[in-house]
């Protein structure tokens, strides 16, 4: 079959020793030399692992889970590992009908998904086994979606095939999903209005006690719970389809001859003579650099001219617009001029260590998922101090990577949007991280990637006039101007409200971190009364839904200049 698309078959295995070899034989008889079978064993204890370990076919790739994930997440893992143009799901105890691959590929000629029927054997079919799909369903997308939600339009994953394009939108599975990954795929195909239903049987489905449950329609309670999950999944499917469609809109590239690999965007405010040195260092690791001056009130023309002489592009904003607006201006310019695959954002006072970029990009391949699902790469440490981590499914991620030193996949901005300029400064990276995770992106940890980052002004932490120590280590409190405390308070509350339902664990830890910082600030920091006022005003403006630049009246009450663009992060900040 020389001209057909490559096929990936994804099988989730668990205690299937009785039938898995027969199933694999029927699959391999259908596949071409360039196809693949991904089998993920979910901790079998009955001899399945031994059967899989003994397989001797270059088309079969076997992965053994260290812990049981459950069948839905096990299938998801197999899908992440697939590389073919077309993907087919497989149970471990069925038998493929000869001609299945050709039948399903024909159904995919004008659609992103093809759905066939099952020939059941080995037992008496129950209620669900008697449901079948019909070619007339192919144009009835709204009715199909309604049927999935109600439960009368069943799709057998073992009888389906779908394109790589649909898989890109399907992964990762919605967090709410606990069952019926095949219905999710069918739902997404119908939302995209791109599905072909086939009358043909494409698989012999073996019936036994384990897969005949339930043998009749479920209780009302279970049905309502499942339908609630389906409604939530439908909302995710619609959102992802819209995002995918918008990302297909061509970007103007100003005649760029080819795509570059990397670019860096540096936000600057009153930069000093060290900026050209830092830009020169950046250019030794990335292809292009954009420096955005965020309305500096001082005359920095000489410094910016030196930066341009080095080959960097300089953007001069007429007024102070905030870190989010400055970064967005630089990112858009970089994408317009060079169309880079990766964009790293930087504070003017952060430094890269040796091989920073090459190590970060290598970590994309080592992230444990298909590279295109990695939306960002964060350093593993700041100033050799490991950053706190967050468990995300079976992976670890940095809890809240700050934008400085983080590399972002360029296409991610098309899918989730740019930095939220309404937040102005502080927590703009926290908000973006949350959107990446909501969209299903992984934030990979750059192995051995360390960022040299200024922590800003500090003073000894004192208790009754004595310097506080932790063991022999002297403790310091890092200062934030009161106007920064205002932004941090307002914005962290805004982010908590936005993402509490989707990411409750992350939100709880972020809010706790800021609460601890405020406690230290109010006990040991300078200008404690002004900080109290800043916290109160930030909370008040959050309650009123007020975003954007700090109100002038509030800024004056904090007796701080309304200079509000500093390259700040969600977790650690620096004053310029």
TrEMBL record:
Keywords of the record: Glycosyltransferase, Transferase
Region (Disordered): 553-576
Enzyme class: transferase
Ranges where the Glycosyltransferase 2-like domain occurs: 8-168, 265-414
Biased composition (Polar residues): 562-576
GO molecular function: glycosyltransferase activity
Taxonomic source organism: Sinomonas terrae
Protein name: Glycosyltransferase
